[in-house]
Every structure is written in C-alpha cells, then in structure tokens.
Model the fold of this input.
Amino acid sequence: MTTERLYQSEAIILRRRDFAEADRLLTLLTPTRGKIQAVAKGVRKSQSRKAGHVELFMRTKMLFARGRNLDLITQAELIDAFRPLREDLIRATYANHVVELLDRFTAHNDSHPQLYSLLAEALGWLAETNDLLLTARYYELRLLSLVGYQPQLFHCVSCTAVVEPQGQFFSAGLGGALCPSCERADPTAQPISLSALKLLRFLQTRSYGAASALRVRRSLHTELETIMHQYIQHHLERRLQSADFLKRLRRESAGEYATG
Ligand SMILES: [Zn+2]
Done:
C-alpha cells in the first residue's frame, strides 16, 4: 500500500449504519474535507479493537485508505468520547438534533473548518450543560450564521428600520424580525416578545461562556424553541427545494447537450 493511498484526518461521527457482514458505513465530519463517508471494517465483531472508537458523536483521529468506491478507516484514535451523549438519553436526543441539523445544512465534501470546530464545541457543551435548551438555541444560531441563514434580529427585514425595544413580529420566510408597521409584509409572521427577541440577540452575538451563564425561564424557552424551529424548518424546506431545482436544471441541460 503506497502512502498516497493513505490520509489522516480528525473526524466526528455523525451517522452510522450496518454495512456488509461485519462492517459499518460511517458518515463523518472532518475539518478540511467536510462531510465524508467511510467504511469501518469488522467493527461489529466482538474482538475488534477499533469498535470502541467509532461510536456515534465521538471525536477521533483517523487514518484512511482510499478505496475504489468508499474509503476505509484503517486506524481510529479517540480524542474525545463525549460519553454523557450516549449514556444519558436526554443528552443523546439533543446530540442527535445538533448532528442532524448540521447534516441537513451541509453537502458532502464541502470543506468548512469553522463548522467542524462548532460541532466539536457543541458536543462538549451538550455533555456538560445544565440547560440543554439554551445550549441548543446557541448552537442553532451559530450554525445558521455559518451556513448562510443567519436570522436578522436588529433591523426590520422589510423596511430595514432599527427594531425598537418593544413587542415585534418574526417572519421565518423573510428571515427575521419585522417592525409593527411591517407586520403585514408577511401574513404568516408571528408575534415575538421583547424578552425573546433580546435573548435571541444575546445568543447570536455573545460567547458561549456569556450565554451559558444566563438563567432562562421555561415559558421563554418554549417561545424561543417554537420560533427557532419554525425558522429552521422553513429554510431547510427551501434548501431542499432549491437542491431539487438545481438537479432538475442539470438534468435538463444535460438532455439538451445530448440531443444538440
Ligand atoms: Zn419595518
């Protein structure tokens, strides 16, 4: 095996599924190669030494061998196990949410080192936080900024006026806060309380250290969760539609070339 066939990278395990007789197909996030797939051979056999290093959410240093179709993981060395994320069911649910969002907002082989750092940090936060909801919202806002869907919270998305400290509206479709005089710019816009808007702004602009020191009452958490999930849902659907549209365009132009 020549050295060109081998490469090394850090990786976080996003997804895994059984593959062939004793293998697993892993979806990984790497710092410079983005999201990739690779096969961990033999890890479903009880005597496999690699098995303990290729569990969900783990951060590892891996050695890969380029394969004809899929790359193989030849070595895996643990950097961070994030144990609570597999042992505590509630934390596991949040870790799944965090990983799934990243998965859905990213394409394969798209290098994004900041996204990798964010995920590594977020898994560490989730393993320790006392306020999973707060940590999840903080992560969502960071993720959205990194993938180009940052909600606009300081200026009205319709008239660009500075959003005053008062009850406002929030439009998932237009991408953020709407001032009271622009409420009708989006009939599906929802009211947002001043506290919720302030908290979103704080989370969007401050460090995790500052954010995690906050104490947030349950009702405010509920409001924030609803707003963020509507926002994320809306943009994920649009993203899927535009991906379908691009695929169709490509197919159609390929068809033209074939006949032309
Ligand atoms: Zn306005």
Summary: The first helix runs from residue 84 to 87.
